[in-house]
């Protein structure tokens, strides 16, 4: 698998890169398309940024291509630099007041925990955290746990679709529907989802959804999107007010200054910035089609799950979920209690393995990403490295 696909990536050959989940990795043809956009910008920047000479159309071309992948209308999404920025837009646009509650789980991304802490300080609202039972083995138990946290003061349900620290695939559909029925805003962190799972945003029914394109979709860094249901787009205020804003942006049916909806124009046109990463998303989608990515992903999932099972056999530690609730190509593997920072450093210094090892809720975790450039031999090296560093006792069955 990886021997055929690794040549398409720019990763250093002297590093075993098992951390696609943090920042992704961009294939060479996609990166070359990125550089072509940057070169076109530098050759004639005035023409490149002029809406009348194609700037608006280029930005829309990406929205059209990405919307087809995401199962929504191009006017429901807008490009952002990353999912954190997109979710900050939402969090700071919602009119919360003292006593309002933001319901979330104990598996959320630390940067967004800080975002909501900031919102709490600004508004007087409060964050209520529910603890998801582990191992996650039941959609019904997950949904019941979330819904049990609703009160008459819950205004926002904030969930990850795929969790960052624990690599769990949260079955969010019924929880989202239950919140919508109660008039609770649903805000979904889908940073790891695009390109990792099939995603149909309109069918999901979330009010707000943010996703990265630079992770599993493999576009360049700085490409992400914000999705907002049409009837709620008037709620969103830009963090930067610039040429795309109009005083009538809250009025239904009004067109923005550059011919899009006010939602799109006020977030796309915010002063000078390099849009090359966003414009390269169609090239990333084409690369995936050209390489039968559904089959690549299937093989990566099988390799990730096999590696997790082999490590669990050595540690005697149970997984965090049953297979259907584990992210397909991303798995958080419990390891014996240890100095996780020291293990992380030793993996790189001794074995040239780039992979996060950290503490989460007093659990030691090694988080493995498997992408099309990885190989079974790299998984063997990882298992041997962890066995040595953690002083694991090899099971007789694994020695055979």
Element order: H for helix, E for strand: HEHHHHEHEHEHEHEHEEHHHHEHEEEHH
Reported CATH architecture of the largest domain: 3-Layer(aba) Sandwich
Radius of gyration: 22 Å
Strand content: 5-15%
Taking the alpha carbons of the first and last residues, their distance comes to 25 Å
Strand order of the largest sheet: 2-8-7-6-5-3-4
Total number of helices: 17
Uncertain runs are: 394-400
CATH class identity of the largest domain: Alpha Beta
Principal-axis shape equals: globular
**Structural class, judged by helices and strands?**
alpha/beta
How many domains comprise the coordinates?
Answer: 2
The biggest sheet, with number of strands, parallel, antiparallel or mixed sense and barrel status, is:
7 strands, mixed
Mean pLDDT comes to: 94
The helix content, as a percent range, equals: 40-55%
């Amino acid at each position: 698998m990886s021997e055929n696909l690794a040549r398409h990536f720019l990763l250093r050959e002297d590093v075993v890169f098992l951390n696609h989940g943090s920042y992704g990795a961009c294939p060479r043809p996609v990166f070359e398309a990125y550089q072509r956009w940057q070169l076109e910008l530098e050759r004639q920047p005035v023409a490149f940024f002029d809406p009348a000479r194609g700037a608006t159309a280029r930005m829309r071309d990406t929205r059209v291509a990405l919307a087809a992948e995401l199962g929504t209308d191009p006017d429901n999404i807008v490009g952002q630099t990353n999912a954190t920025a997109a979710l900050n837009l939402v969090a700071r646009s919602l009119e919360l007041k003292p006593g309002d509650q933001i319901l979330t789980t104990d598996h959320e991304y630390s940067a967004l925990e800080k975002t909501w802490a900031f919102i709490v300080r600004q508004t007087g609202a409060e964050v209520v955290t529910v603890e998801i039972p582990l191992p996650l083995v039941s959609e019904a138990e997950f949904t019941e746990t979330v819904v049990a946290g609703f009160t008459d003061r819950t205004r926002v349900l904030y969930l990850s679709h795929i969790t960052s620290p624990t690599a769990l695939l949260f079955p969010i559909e019924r929880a989202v529907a239950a919140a919508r029925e109660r008039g609770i805003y649903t805000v979904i962190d889908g940073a790891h989802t695009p390109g990792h799972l099939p995603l149909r945003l309109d069918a999901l029914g979330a009010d707000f959804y943010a996703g990265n394109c630079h992770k599993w979709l493999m576009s360049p860094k700085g490409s992400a999107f914000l999705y907002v249901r049409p009837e709620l787009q008037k709620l969103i205020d830009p963090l930067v007010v610039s040429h795309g804003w109009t005083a009538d942006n809250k009025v239904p049916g009004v067109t923005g200054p550059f011919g899009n909806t006010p939602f799109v124009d006020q977030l796309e046109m915010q002063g000078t910035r390099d849009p090359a990463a966003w414009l390269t998303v169609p090239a990333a989608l084409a690369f995936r089609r050209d390489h039968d990515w559904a089959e690549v992903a299937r093989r990566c999932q099988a390799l990730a799950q096999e590696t997790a099972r082999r490590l669990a056999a050595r540690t005697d530690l149970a997984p965090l979920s049953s297979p259907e609730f584990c992210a397909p190509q991303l798995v958080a593997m419990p390891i014996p209690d240890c100095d996780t920072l020291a293990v992380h450093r030793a993996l790189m210094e001794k074995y040239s393995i780039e992979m996060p090892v950290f503490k989460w809720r007093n659990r030691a975790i090694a988080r493995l990403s498997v992408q099309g450039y990885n190989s079974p031999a790299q998984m063997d090296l990882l298992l041997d490295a962890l066995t040595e560093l953690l002083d694991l006792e090899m099971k007789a069955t694994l020695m055979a």
